[in-house]
Amino acid sequence: MRTAAIERNTFETKIKLELNLDAQEPVDIDTGVGFFDHMLTLFARHSRISLIVKADGDLHVDSHHTVEDVGIVLGQAIKEALGDKAGINRYGTSFVPMDETLGLSSLDLSGRSYLVFDCQFDNPKLGAFDTELVEEFFQALAFNVQMTLHLKIMHGKNSHHKAESLFKATGRALREAITINPEIHGVNSTKGLL
Ligand SMILES: [Mn+2]
Fold it and tell me: Which Enzyme Commission numbers does its entry carry (predicted)?
């Protein structure tokens, strides 16, 4: 089983996170930010990973530190659980439509950190969640998984739909990338290392 458990405490946030890439239950998310809980739950369900997150952050400031730090810890946990990445597909790509919106996520568990974020939101707030934190979250995630991540809203209007399509698409792309493929012997790289 590919698992990781991380606890990270700073003056801004206290985070406990457990995940299992090879189990789908449980999923239990509590960050204190309703919209972010909604997004992380979708991400876990669509990536089919068991994910437990308990975050206690400085929400009296705003939701920035909590969202960014959960992205950091989730990224660290995925990287740790993947280990040497032997036998995995490595790449994943998913388009997810949501009514009028179409979102794309394409990623490579390359060991190199890169984010391309080509998305615009009209609505600055989604509940207590600042819409600009979508990019902050994925930046923290990509840099700590050490993956190349391309996100794009192909078209769309509603900010909730746009954010949701990106979290779902990234979950589905990640499931494809982390899946062990019996045709792949060792690490899926001509370098021999990911
Ligand atoms: Mn929704």
Answer: 4.2.1.19
Ligand 1 centre to CA of 160 (Å) is 6
pLDDT of residue 180: 96
Identify which of 27, 28, 36, 38 has the alpha carbon closest to the alpha carbon of residue 66.
36
142 C-alpha to center of ligand 1: Å? 23
Q: How far is the CA of 167 from the centre of ligand 1 (A)?
A: 10
Question: For 125-181, how does the pLDDT look when each residue is reduced to its tens digit (9 = 90+)?
Answer: 999 899 999 999 999 999 999 999 999 999 999 999 999 999 999 999 999 999 999
Ligand 1 centre to CA of 85 (Å) is 32
Residues with CB under 5 A from ligand 1 (ion): 164
Q: How far is the CA of 128 from the centre of ligand 1 (A)?
A: 14
Print the domain residue range for 54.
3-178
From the CB of residue 61, how many other CB atoms can be counted at a distance below 10 Å? 10
State the pTM of this model: 0.97
Please report, for the domain that includes residue 126, its CATH number. Answer: 3.30.230.40
pLDDT 10s digits, 35-65? 999 999 999 999 999 999 999 999 999 999 9
